[in-house]
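hi! just following up on the protien thing from before. the input was this:
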Amino acid sequence: MLSSRATAAYTLGQRRPQVFAGPIGTTPNHQAISRHQFSTSAAAFAGNSGDKNGSNADVEDRPLCREDFVHPDHVKIALDKGTMFVFAEASDLKEVPMADNIQESGVIPAGYSIDFVVSPERIISVLNQVGINTIRQLPEETYYEMRATINDPSNLSIIPTRIYELKRQLQAQTDAESEGST
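and the predicted 3d structure came back as:
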């Protein structure tokens, strides 16, 4: 069950993600997600349990960051989708099939970026607004659900970098204005 603070944070974003009622540890299309990859343990965030990264408590108490939500294979996930957005007439974006050589190379073409429809930065901003600032404050099941939603193929798009940068600037401005009004 989602805590009321986490539920509010999850649904306050610019675009509400599709509600997913599947088992924890799967994506909305029921692909299994490894618990090891999505672990919320402090050791997983530290990379190991050695002293060079500090104590595990310090890691869990650090501020949330983009990397907490973005799967390391998000590029592959976006490429496997098989489509990308290109500029069409009158500066409109059009979704088109991806060229086979792009999928086979595993590399996003120059001038393009991966866009998260529901961005990790937006999620972090909303969580911060409701007082959730660290991994320790975020309920484990909520974390799994958010991360699965963020990394779902339907949330990833390959778009022109210019559009991606404009979107990020607008989100940062909007988030700063929201933080200033609270």
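The longest strand covers residues 83-87.
Confidence is low (pLDDT under 50) at residues 1-55.
cheers
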